[in-house]
Amino acid sequence: MAPDISDHYMTVEPDEATYAQHALRNNSKGTDLDKEALERYKIREICEGWGIYRDAAEWKDYRSMFFDDAYISLSWKQGNIDEFIQASKDGFAKGSSFMYILHRMLGSSVETNPELTRAVCKMKVTITLRFTFDGVEMDNEADCRFFFLLEKRENRWGVCFYTLLFDKDKFVPVNPRKTFDIPEDEVDKFPSGYRYLAWAESKLGVPPKMNLNSHGPEKNILLRKCKDWLEGKQVKPDLTGEDVPNLKP
After folding, report:
1. 130-153: average pLDDT
2. Is this model's pTM higher than 0.90 or not?
């Protein structure tokens, strides 16, 4: 009998304690709806640059999205923005021996504080990653949610933190006649939302970050930190786990 995997993708309402009561949203009852909508548009335009710029290696425009102290946290890399850009360049240079990463940027929602100085942008994204194992090309497709924490400094919005949560993923052969066997017992060691991606990264010698599962406790941890951000509190990495001590910002 096949194992019961029905609990791999449990979707439950976030904890009430993670909801920022006074944040302004797209259904806001704020005091200046047009001004608030314009700020949300600015934020969305910045965040959509992730896929547009990074996938094309347009690094100057990509870097312009972030403040100098921005911290990035993905399954395969964690560090400041300049470290992440260098790692991305190195990944492109490795070609098929690494993973070829592209993004389908889908819908987004933006929350701001009433003062319009801090914001959180949540974006639905499908990441597509091409891997080559023993000469067989395989595409991993990972449905996920991006989280951008932004701040306005000197009248300019910029990203201060970025991370993501994975909902589900799968592998698809590029050539349907050529497949690569993926041991299920190895895959099941990884978080359900991105178990195939995490397995593939581990095969490349890249230890995957293990607390990015939208079906795990890290979801409420991250949402609580988003709430703290909107309320003006200090936030530190790791956004989906325990704070990393002595780490700026």
Report:
1. 97
2. yes
